[in-house]
Amino acid sequence: MKKSSFFDKFIIALVELIVYFYLMIFFRIESVWILIITILLLVVIFYLSKKYKKTFDYITNIFNKNSKFATFFIVILLILFPFVSKLIVPLYIYWLLITIQTFIFSIVALGLNFQAGTTGVMNLSSAAFYGVGAYTAGYLALHYKLPAILTIPIGGIAASIFGLLLFIPIFRTRGQYFALITLAFGYMFVLSLNNLDFVGGPQGLKNVPPINLFGYNFQKAPFGTHFYVNYYYFVLIILFITLFVFQRLYNSWIGLTLNYIRDDEPAAKGCGVSTNIWKLMTLLIGNFFMGVGGAIYAHMIGFISPPNFTLTISLLIISIVLLGGSDNIIGVLVGAFILVLVPEKLRVITEYRVMLYGLLIVLILIFRPKGLIPFKERKYHESIAKES
Amino acid sequence: MSGFAVILQILFNGIMLGIQYSMIAVGFTLFRGVLNVLNFSHGDVFMVGAFVSMTLIGAFGVMSATGFTYIGMIIIIFLLSMLIVGIIGVVFERLAVKPVSKGPVTMSLLATLGLGIAIREAVRLFYPRGGESKKFPELFHKLFEGTKGAFEFSGVIFRYENILFLIIGVVVVLVLAFFINKTKMGLAIRAVAQDGECALMMGVNKDLIIDVTFLIGSALAALAAILYGLYYNTVVFDMGALMGVIGLSAAVVGGLGNIYGAIIGGFVFSLTEALSAAFIPRGSEFMDVVAFAVVILFLIFRPSGILGEKVFERV
C-alpha cells in the first residue's frame, strides 16, 4: 500500500480547518440567518457529494487512510478551541458552556449508544441513570465533602449498581417489554426523587461544590480567560477516554458479540453466546458513562433538580443516538452537536424546542430510520490485509 | 369509620380510576392488535380529548340550559368530542403511526413517544394559556339539583355523579364487547389482529379496519378524558404522559391483545394505587411508584398478562 503523502495530510488539515472556522463564524453571527445558510450549505454539499461522487470518495478515502493524523489534528484544534474562540467570538463564554454541555451529552449518549445501538437493549430511562450519577456525586460532595476525583467515578459506579436493579428484567424480557420496564423505571425514579426528602425533593440539591483537582480549584480562571475553560479541558479528556473505550470495545470481539445479540438473539444463544451476561455487561458499562456524565454536570452547574432527569431528557439522549445513526460513534457526536448545540441558535423559537425534538424523532424514524450516518458493515478482510 | 367502610371507600375510589384506566388500556390493546405497535401517543390523544371536550362545553353553554335540551346537549357533547378526538387519532395514525409500524417494534415505540411529546407541546403552545392547569367545567350538576347529590351507605358517601360514571363505564364495555364480538366490523378487526395478510386475502380492507380501530380507541380515550376531567375537575397539558404509561401498563398486565384483559388490567392498576395510598406510609406520594413496581413484576414473571396467551417466539 502506498504511503500517504504530504499532500493528503494537507487536504485533511484544510478540510478540518474550514469546518473549524466555519463553526467559529457560526458562533459569532447572532442572527438565525446563519443557521438557514448552514442548512442550505449542507444541502448543497450533500447534493455535490452525489454528483461528484469520485472526488468525494477520494476525500473520504484520504480520511480513512490517515485516520491517525486526522484525529490528531482535530485534537489540536479542540485544545485550541477556547483561545481561538476568544479571539473571534464575542460571546465565547456562553458558547464554551454550550460546547461543554454538548460534550457531556455526547458522553451520556455514547453510553446509551453502547446499549441501544450496539447491543439492542432499548433503555428508555437513560436520564434516570444520568440522574443517579448526578445525585450521587452531588450528595457525596455536599454532605461528605468528598473530592471530585472520587465523586465522579463513584457517580458512575452508582449508576451501574442502580442498573443492577434491572438485572431480572433484562434476563426475562426483551425488546419492547424491556423498553416499557425502563420507561416505568424512569417514571419511578423521578417520582421518588420528588418525594424523597434527603435529596431535597422538588428543590433538588443546591450549591454542589465545584471540582477541585489536586488542590487546583476549577473556579479559578486560567490565563485571563474564564473558569469554564477548566471544565472544557476536563470534559474533553473524559470524552476522549469514553471515545477510546467505546472504539476499542466496538472493534474488539466483544463488539462483534454484542452486534450478534442485537441482530439475532436466538441465533447468538444457539452459538453459545451467553446473551444475558453480555446484555447485563452492556447495561453496566453504558450506565457507568451516563453516571460519569451526570456527575460532571452536577459539579459544573452546581444545582440539580428532578426536572433535569425526566423522560424528555431520556428522549433527547435517544434522539441524539438515533439522529446520528445508532451503533456509530461519530454519528453520536454529530447527533449531540445537532441536538444540543444548534438549538441554542434558535433562541427565538426556544419555546418550540421540545415540540421540535418530538417531531424530529418521528421524522427521522419515518424517513431515515438508520440515522444521518448509518453504521457501516464490518469488514474484516480489509483490516486483516492491512495488517499483514 | 369502620374497617369495612374504609375498604369500601378504597374499592370505590379504585373503581372510579379503574374505569378511566381501562378505557385507555383498551385503546392500547386494540392498536397493538391491528398494527403491532405500542402507541405511546395514545396518552396524549387522551389529553387532547380533555381539552376538546372542555372547549365544547364552553362553546355550547350547557350551564344555562335546562330540561331536555340540557340532557341532549350533554349527549351531543359526549358524542361530538368522541368523534372529533377519534378523527384526530386517525389523522395521527395515518401521518405517523402507520408509517413507522413496519420497522422494529422498539423503533415504532420511540416514534410514538416522540409524537406524544409533539402533541403535548403543541397543546401547550397553541391552546390559549395552555401551559396552565385548567378548571374542567361541571357537567352533571344540574341533573341532581334538588337532591343531596349523594347517598350514604354504611358510612361511605357515594356521589350520584360517580354512580353515573360507573354506569357509563359498564355500558361502554358492553357496547364495545358487542361490537367486537357480534358485528361484521368487529369480526374484521379480530381477523386483522390475528393475521393481517390472511385477512387481506379474505377481502378485508385492512387500511379501513386500522382507521376504524384508531377511531374507536381514540373515541374511548376521549370518553375517559371527560370522566377524568369531571372526576378531578382539573386538566393539564402534560397529564397524558403518565396516563399513557399507566394505560399501557394496564393493557400489559391484563394481557396485550385481549380487550377484557385490558379492562381487568385497568382495575388491577387502579386498585393497587388505591390500596397502596391507603396502607403504605406516605403511600399517596408513592402510589404510582408501587403501581409501576407491580407492573414490572408482572412483566417479569408473567409477560403475557393475566388473560393473554403464552406466546412463543418464532425463529
Tags for this entry?
heterodimer, A: 388 residues, mainly alpha, two-stranded antiparallel sheet, 17 helices, B: 315 residues, 73% helix, globular
Task: Please provide a written account of the structure.
- The complex is a heterodimer of chains A (388) and B (315).
- With 388 residues, chain A is mainly alpha-helical.
- In chain A, a hairpin with a 2-residue loop joins strand 1 and strand 2.
- A two-stranded antiparallel sheet of chain A has the order 1-2.
- Chain A has helices spanning 6-28, 33-51, 53-65, 67-88, 92-119, 126-143, 148-164, 167-172, 175-195, 228-251, 253-263, 265-270, 275-301, 311-324, 329-341, 353-367, 380-387; strands spanning 212-213, 216-217.
- The mean pLDDT of chain A is 82.
- Chain B contains 11 helices and 4 strands; from the N terminus they run H-H-H-H-E-E-E-H-H-H-H-E-H-H-H.
- Chain B has helices spanning 3-35, 42-60, 67-100, 105-126, 160-182, 184-194, 196-201, 206-232, 239-254, 259-279, 283-301; strands at residues 134-135, 150-153, 156-159, 234-235.
- In chain B, the strands form 2 sheets. Chain B has a two-stranded antiparallel ribbon with strand order 1-4. Chain B has a two-stranded antiparallel ribbon with strand order 2-3.
- Chain A binds chain B through residues 120, 122, 124, 168-169, 172-173, 175-177, 179-181, 183-185, 187-188, 191-192, 194-195, 266-267, 311-312, 315, 318-319, 322, 351-352, 354-355, 357-362, 365-366, 369, and chain B through 38, 96, 99-100, 103-111, 113-122, 125, 241-242, 245, 248-249, 252, 282, 285-286, 288-289, 292-293, 295-296, 299-301, 303, 313, 315.
